[in-house]
Amino acid sequence: MSDTLPSLNALRAFNETARELSVTRAAQNLHVTHGAVSRQLRQLEEQLGVTLFKREGRGLVLTAEGDQLRASTSQAFEQLAQACDQLKRRAADAPIVLSCSGSFLARWFIPRLDKLQRQCPELKLHLTASEEAQWPLGPGVDVALRFAEPPWPGDAQVIDLAPELMGPVMKPELLQGLSAEDPESLYALPLLHTQSRAQAWPLWFAAKGLEVTRIRRDQAFEHLNYMLEAALVGLGVAIAPAYLVEEDLRAGRLVAPWGFIETPARVGLWLPAGENRPLIHRLIEWLQQELSGDTQRSYR
């Protein structure tokens, strides 16, 4: 198969030129001469028997064949860069880079960091916040913790850790004069929403046998963290994953009188297929233990 492929240098020259639509800028990025890039592109077109670029005015544009090749080369070079980056970090005994949402990081992971370090001193973690659920994982990210519904991408290794539990939470003072036994009391309370989980309230209402058409759209927030802060100051009732409000419930800052339901989403650890570092397996064991303990303490 290698005999049928153009040289890697020619493909790199093409990929960079296709990205920049400029031979000059491609040459600068690759630290070679303009002539070297031009020769690589000419040889590539001759080997493939197609024209990859055409000139329009003073610039370059991709032909249909060039656009088809660019889609493949950009993906291939991105995957190569990620694989090499992972190998470098592994060889250097670098920390495992774990990505998760900012709300999960702030409200679940950081409060447990001291416990993680005591129980697993061999684990070196670098935590980063990301609201994007992209796959493949972004550059420099080894694993990601996500709330997501199956099916998973076929080339992803997803470790199913726990169910998502979702329910209404509020400041205790909001319950004054209302029944903590009857969820219909929610009809009289301002409901807080997030743009990212627009179906959270309808899902919970339906599971509790309440009229979905009576859901009030009182206040919406871009991020779940903002909604929870609004709930903590008494602006209304938030609908949130139980894992993110555990500390607030334990401290009495929030209450969840009507319980939580299990949604179709799962808490999962996403990592590239074939990743089998022992330290990542230790991280998986710890996460399963912690999340399982949360579920067994149960908010339902």
Explain what the structure shows.
The chain is of the alpha/beta class and 300 residues long. Among the domains are: 2-80, Orthogonal Bundle (Arc Repressor Mutant, subunit A); 165-264, Periplasmic binding protein-like II (D-Maltodextrin-Binding Protein, domain 2). It is built from 10 helices and 10 strands. The chain has helices spanning 8-20, 23-30, 34-48, 64-91, 102-109, 113-119, 200-207, 224-232, 242-251, 278-297, and strands at residues 53-56, 59-62, 96-100, 125-129, 143-148, 156-169, 192-194, 219-221, 238-241, 261-272. The strands form 3 sheets. A 6-stranded mixed β-sheet has the order 4-3-5-10-6-9, sandwiched between helices. Strands 1-2 form a two-stranded antiparallel sheet.
Q: Globular, elongated, flat, extended or rod-shaped: what is the shape?
A: elongated
Q: State the helix count.
A: 10
Distance between the termini: 57 Å
- Spatially, the strands of the biggest sheet line up as 4-3-5-10-6-9
How many β-strand runs? 10
Radius of gyration based on Cα positions: 26 Å
Oligomer: single chain
> Structural class from helices and strands?
alpha/beta
In short:
By secondary structure, the protein is of the alpha/beta class.
List the helices and strands and how they pair.
Layout: H1 8-20, H2 23-30, H3 34-48, E1 53-56, E2 59-62, H4 64-91, E3 96-100, H5 102-109, H6 113-119, E4 125-129, E5 143-148, E6 156-169, E7 192-194, H7 200-207, E8 219-221, H8 224-232, E9 238-241, H9 242-251, E10 261-272, H10 278-297
Parallel strand pairs: 3-4, 3-5, 7-8
Antiparallel strand pairs: 1-2, 5-10, 6-9, 6-10
Helix pairs in contact: 1-2, 1-3, 1-4, 2-3, 5-9
